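Quick one - inputs below.
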Amino acid sequence: MHSFWKRRLLHAGAIAAVLSVGLASAQAQRLPETSVKAAFVTRFAEFVEWPAAAHVNQPAVVLCLTAAHPFGPLVQQLTKDAVVRGRPVAVRELKQRASPRGCHLLFVAPADREVLVQVEREPILTVGDQPDFCPLGGIVNLLVVEGRVRFEINLAHARKAGLKIDPQLLRLAAAVHGGAP
Amino acid sequence: MRRWFSAQPIHRKLVLTSMAKTTTVLFAAMVTLQVTDAWRFRTIATTDAASLAGLAAENTRVALAFRDEAGASLDFLRMRPQVVRGCVYDADNRLFAQYARDLAPPCPAEPPDHSQAFSLAATVPVMHNGQQVGTVYVDRDWAILRERVVAAGLTSLAVLFAASVVMLVVSHRLHRMISDPIRKLAAAASGMGKGEEFRMAPITAAEDEVGELETAFRAMVERVRQAKEELIGTNEALRREIEERSQVEAEREALLLREQEANRLKDEFLATVSHELRTPLNAIVGWARILTTNSLDPATVSKAAASLHRNALTQARVIDDLIDISRIVTGKLRVNMEPVDLRVAVEAAVDAIRPAAKHAEIDLTVHLPPTACFIKGDRDRLQQIVWNLLSNAVKFAPGGAVTLCVEPHGELLAMNVTDNGIGIPPEFIEHVFDRFRQADATITREHGGLGIGLAVVKELVELHGGSIAVESRGRGKGASFTVTFPCLQDELPAEEAAERVPSLAGISVLAVDDNLDALAVLEASLREAGAVVRVASSGAEALELWRQEPSGVLLCDLAMPHMSGYDLLARIRDLDRMAGRVTPAIAVTAHATEEQVARSARAGFQMHIAKPFDADRLIRAVSAARTRV
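Output:
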């Protein structure tokens, strides 16, 4: 690719990503990395298929954020009126040490990493934002590579949790762990 | 074009027609196949482009969702060399990612509207989570389709060409089989049209329409040939008929000419007859008038009497000739055959001609054999023959010499009459014996005569079983006639005495004639012979005389006023019957035809004597009649 396009796309892409999920361009420009990560978090739900049991008594897709999350109201704003696989999206901010039961996606802030032990084998897509998130049992970890927000996926943990991840997402991932079955 | 086509031979027409058909069908089939193939190829290509675009959309979906251009990989399109370009646009239709083959033009800035008919490109939306997150455009290469179409088209043309060549050869062969017999037939027909013989070699053994045509044509040729032969036959028959007709026509013309000639001769003859009868009459009438009116010296009277006798004889001869020729013409000439000494007949004829010969100053020499020369014949007719020949010679040799010579030649008796007169021209010699013919009109005028004498002679000679020939060395060199008769050698009846004129002394004769001159001559002739003669000038007078005293012999004219000779004889026969006798009766009449002679015989006349009569003959007849009764 030409460098001209690269640069232009890099810049415009960030803005577009925010815009596409309804984020105000002014906010996106103000907090680019956090905004992008919030957008990523909401996006991951679109590429994951939960087992049928996860939706018993719960028609919505529930996004949970641990107590120490950095997004403020960004996620709520991004998922307002959003629909994933025909289901409405609900956002839940967990209290300190609160059980993540009933969540479909759980953003684990670095300060709340012990919760990972609780959700092991639960059909919950865990998304983190710390360097050893995947070895610790997390499924998707956000990275910043050369100034761009990327992610890595631990497929083994996803299988353990009973989740099916869209293969296209794997292609976009910066790294996939535990790929061999 | 249409004219050109119609001028082509049939086999070429057939070839061209089938070529045209086959080529059209092949061409149509190939074009259809090509179009269908191109369309199918295009459909497949479009579908392929669409599926490639779908694949690209799937591959770029997540990248679009995360705005990660690097993750939007279109490299898999490299596997498909047909794909020229692949372009990915985001939700705002801005170019997001692209793939382009070498030397391909770059992607358009916005997703193109590719709903054109001839497009091998596909544009599909990129859907994610129920939303369009972008558009993918994939463009396929036209070149392959073009190459494919061109290759297929070339192949089709090659096949078409090869098929046409093969078909041309095959159909040429096949159609030759059809058209060759027709061409041969046409050649045969045109040959016959140019006058060749109406015959035809077999052309085809095929049982198709051409075979039927040939059979029909052969039948027609046969019919024409027959018609021609019939025509030739008819022509031949017609030609023959025309020939026959023209022959008949020629014969008719000849006949007509002969008839005209005969008519002309008859006219001439009539004129001649008139002349011949008048000439002696002139002398007779003249001398008679002189004798009655003047008293003359005895020498003149004697000369007058001789002239009268000569001319009367001449006229009688003319009339005899006329009657003879009439008998000859009607075929009723009769001769009374008996043994006759030819010398006697010759002497009588010479005696009769001497006055005329002397008158014409002719030196007449006669050579007769010393012994009698008997032949079977009619004395009078023989005499007539000799007289005719001699008078002919005398007539045509005035002042010359005439020689008559009779000589026996074995069983034949030859009589030759030669003169040194004017002779006979060669061209006339064959007509010498024709009736009514004389050498020419000038001769007729100069020499007189009826021109029938020689015809009568010939007829008479032949009736006697003899023949006559003529010789002449030409004009002015005289002529020679030779007559030959068969001889009678053993039969020698001594009738010498009978030749003498008998005496009628003691015989009473009643002569009846309404013509007083004729009656006077009769009376004089009979008295001279010693008969007792009574005369009557009518039937009534004669009957009256007869009642007074019947005579020994009746001499009677036939044609008389009031009572004819026949009526008179009938009355006298009635009287005879009462008296118990039969009186001999002799008809003396100018009615000298055969029929009249026969009629008189039927009526009861024993004899018939023609006027003018020879006195000797009359006397002999009376004597014979008297002795016979």
